Amino acid sequence: MFTADHIDALLRERGLVLTQQRRRIVGHLSGNMGHPTAAQIHSSVAPGVTLSTVYNTLALLKDLGVLTELPQPGGESRYDPNTAPHHHLLCSACGTLHDVAAEDVQVTLLSDAQVEQVQVSFLGRCPEGCPA
Ligand SMILES: [Zn+2]
Ligand SMILES: [Zn+2]
User: How far is the CA of 100 from the centre of ligand 2 (A)?
Assistant: First the structure.
C-alpha cells in the first residue's frame, strides 16, 4: 500500500525517517494514476524540494518495493505507485499512460523461462479520445 504510514514504517525498519520533503513526494504520489515523470513530480512539490531529492526519494521508494519505474523508450521514466500487476497503454498522440488490467491481457511465453513478473507496454491511442 502506497500510504505515508506504511512507507514511514518501512523506512523506520531501515533506520530511516520520512522527512518532510520525502513526505511531500509520497503525498503527491499516493493514489496518483497519472504515471508522472520525476520532473513532473518535482514541479508539483517544489519549491522546497530539489530535483535530486526527488530522484533520491524515487530510488528509495523503488528499493522499498512500493513504486515501479516505467522506463519509456526515448523519454523520461514514469513512476507508478500502483504495484499490483497491470499493463500500460501509451497514447502516441498525447503521451497519456493508461493502466490496462492484467486480466485483460493474455500473455503466453513459448519457452520455459522462469518468469517472475510480466509487464506489457502497448502503444496506441487513448481509448476514449485524448484529453483536451
Ligand atoms: Zn500503471
Ligand atoms: Zn491520447
Answer: 14
